[in-house]
Amino acid sequence: MELARSGLTLTVPAGESILDVVRAAGVQANSSCEQGTCGACETRVLAGTPDHYDAVLTPKERREGKVMMICSSGALSERLVLDL
After folding, report:
1. What is the pLDDT of residues 24-40, one digit of tens each?
2. What is the rounded distance in angstroms from the CA atom of residue 30 to the CA atom of residue 53?
3. Backbone CA torsion sign across 24, 70, 38, 40
4. Comparing C-alpha atoms, which of 19, 9, 34 is closest to residue 70?
5. What is the DSSP string of 30-84?
């Protein structure tokens, strides 16, 4: 995963969330429930295909793949570029 604004490339290990890895790297990311139900961690996707596991986005938003909830979702593509 790449963080465009921060210039970082990070690996998300199995069992960890994107949110946890981003924060561990020292990058500011909003969140609240951390379960994919509130929408506070919504992050813009610049490239790649998210694997959505949230209760916030509509089916259309999921298909478009322009945003994702980084507390609960992952990636279907090898490369995911986020606006962080």
Report:
1. 999 999 999 999 999 99
2. 17
3. positive
4. 19
5. --SSSSSSS-TTEEEEEES-EE---SSS-HHHHHHTSEEETTT-EESSS--EE--
* Mean pLDDT computed over 45-67: 97
Binning pLDDT at 50, 70 and 90, where does residue 68 land?
very high
C-alpha dist (Å) from residue 70 to 46, 67: 14, 9
Calculate ∠ Cα 65-69-11, nearest 5°: 90
Q: Which helix (H) or strand (E) holds 23?
A: helix 18-24
Q: How far apart are the first and last CA of the chain?
A: 11
Rg of the chain taking only CA atoms, in angstroms: 11
Residues whose CB is less than 8 angstroms from the CB of residue 24 and which lie 6 or more positions away in sequence, other chains included: none
